[in-house]
Each structure stands twice: as C-alpha cells, then as structure tokens.
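Q&A log
Question type: sequence-to-structure
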Amino acid sequence: MRFEWHPKTPLEFVIFFVLLWCTVSFVLATIGGWRRLAEAYRFEGTFEGSQWRFTSARIRWGVNYNGCLTIGANERGLYVAVLLPFRLAHPPLFIPWSDIGVTEQRGLVFRYLEFGFLKAPGVPFRVRHQLGSALLEAGGWEADGLREKMIT
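Response status: OK
Response body:
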C-alpha cells in the first residue's frame, strides 16, 4: 500500500507541517527524557553564568540534540535550553550540582562526560569531554581530577 498526499492549498501544507513539527517535538521530548527532566528541573527566568551556544548532547535512547542547545553552568548548577525554533515541548532546565553525578566515558573516537540526575534517574545527558570539562570548571568543580562523581 502506498500513501500519496497532494495538498490542494498552501494552507493545507502549512497545517500538515505544523502538526508534524509538534508531533515530532513531543515524541522526541518523551522518548529522550526531556519531559521527565522538565518535571523536576524546569527553569523560568534568566540564566546568569557561562554559556555555550549551538552545542550538542545525547540523551536517553540515542536522542541527539545536534547544534541546537545552549548549555551553561555557574556555581549553583547546570543550565540547558533548546534553541527557540525547536523549543516546543522542551522548556529550559536548571539542575543544581547537588543533584548531578558525572562519569567519564570513551566512545570509538571521542571522550565524553555523562551527567546523571538525582530526580530523573535513567535520563543520561552526554556531552563531549571538552565541553563537559568547561561546564564543570564554570561550576567550580576540579575537572582535572575527575574520574567519577556519583550522586549520593
């Protein structure tokens, strides 16, 4: 069976595109775990601290956010936000350092830091080692000696 759709008006195409965009955003937020993170760590306000824009991360079940994140850190915690066109179902997050555990990981080519969260177990947040180290430094952690910091 083959599906063919031919919009008769530009409005039909726009409606279809908007519905598709919303559906994909909600599905990715659910599968990846962003909705779970937002239940515990939703952030409203203006973040004050070091920020890195157009960065990437991988979260649960291989959901990647490539080049569409702003990630920041200060002495209180970790900030993560999706760029505006992709923000639907992805509110900004702020996670206090006391709720974060970090492990170092090796991929086939790159090294990563994986952040785990006390109030959202099972939702890893993996970034390249260089960015992860910079985030830890901005948060006042000693990144050089990092092997593993587990949530207690």
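Response note: The mean pLDDT is 82.
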